[in-house]
Each structure stands twice: as structure tokens, then as C-alpha cells.
Protein 1
Amino acid sequence: MKPMVNRFVIALALSSGMSTVFGQSNDAADKALTQLTEGNFKQAKTLATAAMSANPYGSLAYAIHGRALAAENDLAGAQTYLEKAIKMSPNNGVYYAFEGANLKNQHQDAAAGKAYDKALKLLAAPASALEYYARGSVYEAQKKEEAALVDYTKALELNPRFALCYIKRGRIYENRKQADAALTEYSKAIGINPAYASPYFLRGNIYYEQQQYDAAITDFSKAVELDPKDVDALFNRGVMYKKKGNYDQALADYAKVLTITPNDASVYGNRGNVYLMQDKASLAFSDYTQAIKLDPNKASYRVSRGNIYQRWEQVDSAFNEYNRAIALDPQYADAYLERGNIYLNKQQYEPALADFNKVIAIDPHSSNGYLNRGVVHHDKQQYAEAIDDYTKAIEADPKNMLAYLNRADAYEATGNNKLANADRKKYADLGGKLSATAANTRKEIYPKGTFDPKLAEAALGRGLSKIVGRACTKKDGLIFSAAGVKVVLLPVTPYLEEWYELREKKEGKNTSVFMSKEANQYAITAISGSDGRFAFEGLKPGKYFIQLIHSFNQRKTARIYTGSDSWQNGPVREITNYYYDQDYLVARSQRLEKFVEIKEDGETKKITLANGLIKTCDF
């Protein structure tokens, strides 16, 4: 089961600048603007309220108050104050930039676009850090990252303590996968204002992506310390605790989130995962069910609940959950993976293969997708394809223990014991446990190649030719007809040729070489008569391999000693020994086989299957 996707909510970044740009501010407004610049939103709102009381017509105070409300996610209240600021100063591009961001956060994209267009016209020639910041935020919203980065950098040149610009630049670097540069930006923002929660949260997210879980927990904890109701920091810290196996601490964080946002489906989903890791399946099931109730369109919750059904061996219910998940999200790989496992367990190989192929199509780096597809090929004794898939699983995840173990079995099945032993050692090195077993003195190996059923089926198509023959075995000068024996005809394919060549090289006292079960299914069988005669009719031109195992009992006679008499004949002592003849049976088994080629349709081939030249056995 794949862990629930973590949510990482980015705190709303606000703008700041120098109040002297507006020409209608007071000391309280200047101070409010400074606090806003450095990320102290509560102080900025308090000072802006004081500024509005001192000067009811100062537009800057209304704009700052609106942006502070936006930081608290009071978007409707923020809109009211921003509209007042614009009404007082209709030619101020910064206010329109603020309004555009607020409207976008309310998903009013059309209105936001108009506000942004107005802002760009009015900010054609920025003159302050705030104006560069405001224009940069518009460029960023329009996905013009390079232009935004230039403006944020210019704003920082004019005001090096503009913490929000560092946040904005950090986000752009993060989008560009430049994690180290983003970390530097967030750390600079913290250096300016250690009481600013947002950069701790954002830096914690990067530490998580880098699997630096302790560092991430430290940053999320600091964000929670600064804002105890920061549900996103609490949630993400819970995810980190889960990653580290600190399940009780993870549960405590999820519980705190639910006291603040009791209808958050993602919390129930993640908490269900923790319960499952603690083998508390009933509690996990309850949480997954609640998550589905709150968010019925989330495919992952269906898969998670399906996994519980699987654990309880309620396979039909699990199958239904996976089908619902796929209907909700046709690109959700885990649903196909789990449904494919059900097909695989039922030996329904074709639908299983289709599901695992879908997993790999969605996620070409899915280690488990390749692993499970390899199992399908393995079960079908298609060892070359199985080994190839296990290798791809290992390339995608070098710590996938099962891929090493399964590949070892596949190598062993094809006679490559050296590679098999190397893979088993790697499995053990990764923590896998290998139990001692009894030595198998006789090995069974298979061709590495893949059998092509379509090729075999085509070769067995209907024709006008036939093969007739007789089978005999010669032992101790006696001729034994193969009476009532099953005779098998197989089409000669590359797979059969590989098998035959492997058998010629490897078969011996301790080694048997077999074809796959599937390959053996594409055969025609006949039963020989009392004189060993058999026939195959309706064949088309092509090359065939005919084989039978002639098992019979050979009657032999042994002279059994029963005793003796002795007497004295003058000076000579004479002895007479007594014997009788006893018949006994000796079990014999002889493999008889031959390659036969039909060149023309309508041709009749006559063959003899025997262990040498037996003239009386000719057809």
C-alpha cells in the first residue's frame, strides 16, 4: 500500500514596501508597512487599524489591513479593505496587484486577471521596493518566473529586509528544482524575522523532500510554536513522525489537526495509514471510511480501504474498491497495482499483465510495477522477460528486496546458479531472511527465452499432410513395441530449439531440462497401437518434434541355487548342486524422439522411433 500523499500548503505571501510611495501615510502606517514587509502580519494589522483611526482617508493603511487579513485567510474581509484602498487611490498599481492575488485565492480568475492587467499598466516604471515586489507577484501569477525573479531581486536591492521577497524567490527556485537555492532564501527570511512562521514551514517541506526528516520536524515544530493553530505544519509534522516510525507522535499531531479542522479528509486518510502500520486494521478501516464520506472522489481512500478488505480476505469487496478508484482516477497507478495482484493470485495472467502494464505506463519508474509484471512472466515460466522486469525493478529501487529474491529464483531456473547466489546475498544484505533448506540434489532448469503461443498455434494449423510411424525399443537383443504409449507432436519454434539445445548441454544425472507449461499445451497427442504404430493427420508443411517415453517391463530369468548333495566315490568326494529357473521383471524406460520436416502439403512422412537401427520396427 502506498502512503497517503502528503499535503504541503503554501502560506500566502504578502507584499511590502516603503509607505512614502503613497504620499498619504502617517507614522503608524509606516510602521505597519515595515511589519508587513518582514512578515509580522498581526502587528501590521494592529498598526494599520491605528493608522486608519488617525487618518480615515489614508489608503495605505486600508491596503495593509486588507493584506494582513488575507494572511489570516479572511479573504472576504481582505477584499473589502482592498476595494476601499483602490477607491481612495484608483491609480495605485500596488493595490490592484494585492487585489488580484486576493481574487485568485478566491478562485475568481477572470476578475483577478483584470486586476493584474490594471496593476501592470500602473506599474510600468516601478520606483520603490514595494512596487517592484507587487509587479513581480503579478509576473509570477502569470507564470513569467524570470521577470518576477528580476523584480524581486531589485526590490531586495532597495530594501534588504524585505523578507517576503526572499519567500517569493525561494518558491521560484523550488519550482525550478533548485532546492539548495530555495533553502538559502528561506533561511535569509528567517534571519530577518525569526518569528515569521512561513519560511520554517517552507524550509521544512524541502527537508522532507530531501529525506532529512529530523530537520523537517524541527522546522515544522517551530512553525507550530509560532502559530499553534497552523494545521498544515501540524499535519506535515505528523507525516514526518510517520516516516520515522514515531507512530504515537504522528497520531497526536493528527488528533490536534482534527480539533481545529474536524472535517479534513486527508487527516483521516493519513491517520488510517498509521493505524494500519500498527496492525490496528479496524481503526484504519474506520478512518478510511470517514475519509471517503468527507471526500468521496478521492481514489486513494478507496484503494486504502480495499487493502483492508484484502487483509480480511474479503477479495470481492477489495476488487470493487479498486474498480471504484480507477473510475474516479484512471491515472491512479496504485489502484491498478492492487487490482493486478488480485488477478495474479487467481492466476488470471492476462488481466494481471494488463494492469501492471498500465502501472508502468503511468509511472515508468514504478519498482513494484516491474516487480509484479516480472512475477506474471515468472509464473508463466517466461524467465528472460521475468529477469528483465526484476532488473528494471531494482534499477528503479535498488532496495527492493523481493526483486533480488525473485530474480535469484529466475536465474536458478535457467541454470545460472552464480548469479542466483549473488542475488540471494544481496537480499540478505538488505535485511531479508533466508531459511536453511534441505539440499535439492536434482535441479530442474528451463529455457531463458519466451515461448510465442501465436507462432506455435499458427504452426499447428490445418493441412493435408500426415506423419505415420512406429516406435520400438531394443534391449538385450530383444525388440519391444511401444504399445499403448502417448506420442506427442510439437511444432518446432525458437523456444523449442533453445530447450533442445539446453537439454543437450545441461541434462545429466542431476539435472533435468523442461519446457514451460504453456509450451507443452501447444501439442498434438496420439496413442500408439499394440504394435507401436501411430499417426498424426491434417498437418501443414513445417518442422515438428515427436517424442514418447516408452516404459515397459522386461521379463528376465535367473537361476536360483536350492542346495547340494555330496557322497564318497572311492577315494573321490563328489558334490551335486541343485538349481531352478525363476522369471522376474525389470522396469525399463526409454525416451524416443525425432525431428520431422514436411516440405509439401499433402505429403506423408513415415518414421521409426527407436533406440538404434531396428529393421523389424520399420513402419
Protein 2
Amino acid sequence: MTHVAYGVWDGIVYDRQTPPDHTGAPDYDLKNFDEFDAGNPIRAFFGDRGFFVFDETVSLVDSLYHYMAKAAEQSCGVCTPCRMGTVLVRDALDGMRRGLAPSLDLDRIEMLGEQMRQTSLCGLGQTCAVALLDALHHFRGRIEAETAPGRPVPAQHGMAYVTAPCIEACPSKVNVPRYIDYIRDGKPENSLGVLLQQYPMAATCGRVCVRYCEQACRRKFVDEAVGIKTLKRYVADQQSGPHALKFTRDMIRKPLADGMKVAVVGAGPAGIACAYHLLLGGYHVDVFEKSHQAGGMAQIGIPSYRLPKDTLAMETEIIADLGGRFLFGQQLGRDFSIDDLFARGYKAVFLGLGCQAGSRLGIAGEDAGLRGYFSGIDFLLKVHDHVDGIAPLALSGEVVVVGGGNVAMDCVRSALRLGADQVHVVYRRTREDMPADAEEIEAAEAEGIRFLTLTNPTRILTENGRVTGVELVRMDQTDPDESGRRKVRPVAGSEHVLPCDHVIAAIGQQVEDGALVQGDGVALDRWNCVAADDTLATSRPGVFAGGDCTTGPSTLIYAMAAGQNAARNIDDWIQRGSVRFFKRARMRKLIADNRFLANDVVETPVRNAYRVHNPELDPELRKHMFEEVEQTISARAAYAEAQRCMRCYRVYSVVTRHSIP
């Protein structure tokens, strides 16, 4: 356990010089806090809920100065308490640490801190003075003793980091409040720039993202979370095309020599993101894709009524616009191997293979050759080919889809559009347990899909090689397990038959090409996914992997984040021979491991203003066609929604013994 010398956190005072039976408290249970980087101990930590000092020789004045300097730098300037208060306090602390006569005494600094905390209009101003006030209230004597000699304070090492709950929840760490600020300021082109710094598929993400950021949004404690995904789509739809291309071309570093080229295998979201960031880094990138279109599972696994294919094509085409090459119809193991890629002069290889093989139900009567039986992925691939006019597909009668995730929701809504008379969802847990996005479940219900929850298939019934029905059993919930989730068990004697013409198993996906890379010296893990470490490096030097092929089926935003991280690490591996230490990533881990981002309080009352929702086609109309269901909001609606953001920025800083690389 890391021992706290003194500090205050959440109003609790920690002071090893004070007996515990008075005002002192036992050590806070800090995790992963001994060193910031190798051989560099953490001496102090400051945040929005207080501060900890681990080394008695730390200068409080210098530490608080750097903390307030970062707050002043990030202040938006809208309200006076934060705009002026952070600057005045920063300058006063600067004078103290330099051994000069301060512009404000401690009483005035405390007064300004209280004004910021109580009257600022956003989360940054409300929280940036917490550590300062805690130090003045409980350890003023230390500050006075430190400044009494009137001599400069020795410089300290460390760093400051600004974030927000929505930023930390986003796998790609998009600066959400910043791009919302630009919408509020009437600068949507700047807003798009914030997104394009992280990934190229903003319009796609604005349609299908699962919204981890909105789950973390503190506005939900007032009324509803800010429509972050809705605003992202608005910006991308308004500013796509030439605007996006010009911005990204301006971001390209100096092009590297012709021999500095990287191969990306797979043109899904992970591969596209990796290629994008490598191109911005000046590399020459070739993307090998076994199909004849880019997009991967976003292309074949998300129906057009959710993600129009022209939108996806426009965004993936940015790879070619930036100088990359798509090599379609090139399959790993058939047309080339990893050995071949290195022999052709590629400095590194990224594997973004995805999970394009469906999982089986594992029940009696199941046979992939049955007429009327599909895996979820195979069915969505056929839907894709139908919409593209490659191979028409029509359904009739009753359709049963087994599963409760987004793939299952895509299958049931697509089946309805293909002519099914009735579509049923069979899920062994409750509706509340379904992993699908709540909006997708609600949309399916609005279109007339029938949900059979706490129900599980036990056997597929057939006649002459064709599906005729499915035997189901009712499930009963048991006590919660160690994770808190209630298990389910079959109810004896509850078996019953649901006649149907089609069964779609939408219960998961697997890596399809795992065995091919294994033969090239790339190890798989026990789930038959590509084994990769924290840097996304595989067992073969120079080969990196990310996205669904390393984690199993996940989300588009996680895949793009993996591609971005892999590009950064590939750059290091080529240029340095090893992956660098990233201090911002280390700070994020400190915050996450110790759950420093509070998630239960709104400091200042906010007037209720419920979120703007995307206009939608009428359910009775849309269930007969594959045109996009949701529409883009108006500029007026976007401005109104942007006003709801509370700018929940938080400042964190560490003091370390040595400089941070």
C-alpha cells in the first residue's frame, strides 16, 4: 500500500503526524501508485476531489501553482469566477514560489477559490479550487512555513492532465466537450477537426456508436445525457467530403522515405484507423482486403437502414485520398502470407482481421446445411448482397432469431424488411439483460418484433432438410453470482414448440482467419483470438494486431481505438525499435484504477432541458424498406443540444521525483 504523508480527499483529512483517533485517517487504498514510470516515484497527486502528498519535502505552493496554471489554460472564459479567478490565483502562487511578494495573501486566495467553487458555470471552475481550498483549510501552516523565508522554491517535476468523464469513457479518448464547444460557438468545421484527430469515420460512428460517452455523461443526473452521438453525426454530415480531406491533409507529417511502408491486413474499422494514422505519420500504407469493398463488419454486418453504404464508402475512401492503397481481393493465406509481406519490404504488419465467422447454438438438430438456417453473420452478409443487388433475398413465414445483442437486433429488423410475416427474438435472460443498445431494442419493438425473453432453444425441428420449428424451454432466474448477475436455469417440463420457417443464430462471432496467421508464427490465445500484449504487439516481431481479432466481437469505436493505438506503437517500433512510455496513458490508468472520476454528484443546479432526438421515419413505413431510419438534426437543434453540455472538465496533476519522458 502507498503511504500518504498528508492530504485531503473527499473531505477526509489524511495526516500521519496526527493520531488516528483525532482528525487523522488511515491510508487511502491507492492502486498502482508507487511509480509513475520506471524508477520515478510519485511524490504527490492533485485532483478535483482533493490531494495526496507522499513525500514530506514536496512544495505545496509549487504543486498548486502548476495545477492552477493548467486550469487557467483550459478555462473557456464564459464566466468571470473561472476566467479571472484561475488567473489571479495562479499569478499569486507564482509569486510565492519565486520568493517574490505575492499579489494576493492567503485569505484572498481562499476567497477567490470559494467564489470559483460556488459560482462557476462549468465543471472545470467548480472543481479546480478543491485541492487549493483543502490545502488552505487543513494545511495552511505548511504553506506559510514554506513561503516565510521569501526564497524561490526548487522546481519540481511532474505533469498535469485535463479530462472529463465522457473523454475517459470513450475508447478513442475524443475530447467531447471541446467538439461540443465548437458547435456552440458556430464552428462545426473545428468540431470535425477534433474528431478527425482521433479517427476518420466520424459520420459512421455518429450513426452506430454504442455511446460509452453518454453512459458517463453527468448531465444524466439532471435530466438526460447530452446527445453526444447525435451531435457527432450532425457535424460529420455537415462538414464531410472536402472539409475533412483538407483538414487531414494539413495534419500529415513530413512524408517518409519510399521504403518506409507498412502493410495493413483487413479494411475494417481497425485497419482503416491504423492506416489513417500511419498515413498521417508520413508512412506509405497498403491495405490488403479479401473482399471487394472496404469497411469490414461495418460494411457487411450493419444494415443500410442504420448505416448507408455511401456514407461508409465516403469515409473509408479517405485512405486513398491520403495516398494509401487498397488491394482488394487479396486474402491472407491464399494470395500472400506474412512472410511474403516482409519479403516485399514492409517494415511492419497490422492484422485487423475481424470476427466474420458465426457461432453455433450447439443444440440438437442444428445443421448449417439446413434450408432456413443461418448464422447471424451469414444472414447479414446475404442482406448486404441483397441491398447491393448482388443476390436478391426474400423471406416469408415465421422467423426466429436467437440472441440479444446488436447483431440480433439487426437480424430481426432486416428479416422484417425482407418480407417475414412475424419475427421473434428468443433470449434466455430478461429484456433488461440484453446487451443490445436500448435504442435498437426500442426500434425493433416499434416495428412489431415479438420478444420471447427467459426462453432458450433446445432443438431445431426439421422436415426434408428444411427448418419447420424450434423447441423452446422457459428459463428461471436464480440468485446472483459473484459478479452480481443473476444466472438462469431451465424450468423442468416447460418445453414447447414454436413453428417457424427460419432460424437465425445471432449469439456471437469468431475469428475466421486465426489458423492462417498461426502458421506464420503469430500465436493465438485460448479463445482462438490473435494474442497481443498491451502494445498490441503479437508473438512475431513487427506484427501488431487489434480490433475484434484480438478481443472477440466488440464495437466499432473499440476497433478504431485499437487501430489508432497500433499505428502509434508501429511508428515507435519502426523508428525506435521499442514502444515508448506514454505519460497521458499512464495518467489515465491512475485515474481509472483508483476511480478518481466521481460519478454521483452535480455541483451546481442546472435548468432541465431534455435532449434532442434524431428525427425518424414512421415505423409502419420504414419496416418495409432499407432506407436510413434516423435523419440528421438541424443546425438549430444542434445548437440547443450543445448548450446542454456542462463542460465537466477535471484537472489532475502528479509531482514526481524525476522528469517524465
